[in-house]
Amino acid sequence: VLVVDLEKLNPYITNNAVMFELFRPFGITSPVLGDLMNIISGQTGSAIMTGSHRIIKNRDELIINEISAKQQISWNYNTAGELSGSPVISSVREVMLTGSYRIPAAGNIACLDMEKITFPLTIRNWQYGDYFYPLGMQHRKKLSDFFTGIKASLITKENTLVLVSGSKIAWVVGKRIDDRFKVTDKTTRVLEIIMKHRH
Length: 199
Prior knowledge:
Layout: E1 2-5, H1 6-9, H2 16-23, H3 33-41, E2 47-49, E3 53-58, E4 61-66, E5 74-77, H4 80-83, E6 89-96, E7 109-113, E8 121-125, E9 131-132, E10 141-142, H5 143-149, H6 154-159, E11 161-165, E12 168-172, E13 176-177, E14 189-195
Antiparallel strand pairs: 1-4, 2-3, 3-4, 5-8, 6-14, 7-14, 8-11, 9-10, 11-12, 12-13
């Protein structure tokens, strides 16, 4: 655990180049430097998670914790069958779309257009800088902003995984699918993924 005194950091806060060099060892990249600045100027409890560290504001300091390898998740699946063996997935099935099929409303179920899926699929921790097109929206949204919008707790944010197809997030697991992968009237095959309930 590393504790950074914000008063001592203050002279450098407006210098992006210095801030980037100071925080680069903790997984901060150029695109998320602005998010770090928001944490510094934000309320106690504001936090950012990089691929390797968690940075939390606590009054007049930043607390930097390394995320253990056990907490870092990145699983690759070459087929739908392999995906069904994931520790966080209950079942996966490919459904030929007929008039009788109805998309389940449950939040732990994702129904994706199979034709839009690119294998391998990856399930990993979400990262600052990640974005997707939430179902029903035509514009992209940073996941950090999405979590703010749904008032997600710090624990929820830390435990949220994403399903990635190619370079695109297809599903914020258990929360929302990406609009680019939704089932439409032109869809013929659906990939139905059911998430296990996580405690």
